[in-house]
Amino acid sequence: MNKLADTKISVLDLAPVAAGKSIADSFKNSLELARHAEKLGYTRFWMAEHHNLEGIASAATSVLLGYIAGGTSTIRVGSGGIMLPNHAPLIIAEQFGTLETLYPGRIDLGLGRAPGSDGLTMRALRREMTGREADMSDLVQELMYYLAPPQPGQKVRAVPGAGLNIPIWLLGSSLYSAQLAAVMGLPYAFAGHFAPEMMQQAIDIYRVGFKPSEHLRESKVMVGVQVLAAETDQRAEQLATSLYQRFLGIIRNQRVNLQPPVDNMDAIWNPMEKEIVLSKLSKSIIGGPEKVKAGMQKLVEETGADELMIVSDAYDHQERLKSFEIIANVKNR
After folding, report:
1. H helix intervals, 80-220
2. What's the pLDDT at 133?
3. How far apart are CA 182 and CA 188, in angstroms?
4. Which distant-in-sequence residues (6+ apart) come within 8 Å of 301 by Cβ?
5. Exposed, middle or buried, 104 (CB in 10 Å: 0-12/13-18/19+)?
6. Of residues 103, 100, 80, the one with CA closest to residue 166
């Protein structure tokens, strides 16, 4: 049985923009959080690619990762993830090759295949959409080719990038990426923080089908999870109303900045909306220290996760810092 004390914990940051605050504030907060997480012993600090979304400022993911890595010294920094179909694999090899050269031994490259936005934005990003876009497996293999040691006579190289040992993770919220990660022998991260429905099935498929590779000898699973910790269960539940409002906005197709907590969500959502939001957050862990510790231990036991990638977005930045501090303290207690 996996134990929480033996499980790595890491941070997933979307560079959230709180109502009344600026994107510049968001970036400063991200760096402060990364330094805070580093001191608390978190393993990684990842950022995710999103586009055209009010309230999430991590669109230029590679640029932000350089800012975070440059402002920290030991914590691993990476993408959770780069949406590879949005980019030429050579570009990503060069960008992450640059990051790895600047900050050796500290860079991770997590890859997803969703657009990270809506259909119109996807077309703006991908420009030359022909209906015959490359399969995700082909894109990953091309990227790995550029990051591998260059072959004699190789005409196109990633400079920098070629020959650098940058760990690649495959990310997913469905079964496809689980199957691909298993076949390719890569570590796998499931997005349980927003799409928990197929989490256990995807993890089981990955573990059963895993084929050892030069990159990884045994399967490795990371689970994304929303965790919001406060001094008491009641306080955590109130802070979580900001999270509920964010997911409610997604349902209503109203993307807005992170909203302040409210006393009564029932005045905002209807019963059907409430059910949908809570189902999307069914694996979230919200509470005081004891409830958070028990919830994290249960998740580790259920999934056998080697690592938890934690999202903890509170409207107030100080509450967010405090949440990550409580999480680290109860994990190690």
Report:
1. 89-102, 119-126, 136-147, 175-184, 199-209
2. 52
3. 8
4. 1, 2
5. exposed
6. 100
C-alpha separations of 228 from 55, 60, 96, 332 in Å: 18, 26, 31, 17
pLDDT in tens, 211-269: 999 999 999 999 999 999 999 999 999 999 999 999 999 899 888 899 999 999 999 99
- From the list 52, 167, 55, the residue with the least C-alpha distance to 108 is 167
Q: From residue 135, how far is each of 164, 176, 206, 311 by CA, in Å?
A: 24, 11, 19, 29
Position 177, amino acid: S
Cα–Cα distances (Å) from 285 to 15, 83, 256, 327, in that order, read 21, 27, 23, 10
| CA atoms 33, 226, 119, 113: torsion sign | positive
Cα separation, 12 vs 313, in Å, equals 10
Report the C-alpha gap between 283 and 237 in whole angstroms. Answer: 15
Token look-up 């991200």 returns: 30
Three-state DSSP at 83 gives strand
Structure tokens at 282: 């069914």
Instruction: Report the C-alpha gap between 261 and 305 in whole angstroms.
Output: 31
| 269 CB-side CA count, 13 A | 24
In whole angstroms, give the CA distance from residue 212 to residue 316.
44
Token pair 């293999």 is found at 141
- 85-98 tens-digit pLDDT: 999 999 999 999 99
- Long-range own/partner contacts, residues 25-31 (CB < 8 A, 24 or more apart): 26/57, 27/57, 27/64, 27/67, 29/317, 29/320, 30/64, 30/67, 30/68, 31/67, 31/68, 31/71, 31/72
Model confidence at 128, in pLDDT bands (50, 70, 90)?
low
Q: What is the pLDDT of residue 216?
A: 97
Tens digit of each residue's pLDDT (9 = 90 or more) over 67-88: 999 999 999 999 999 999 999 9
Residue with tokens 């109203």: 254
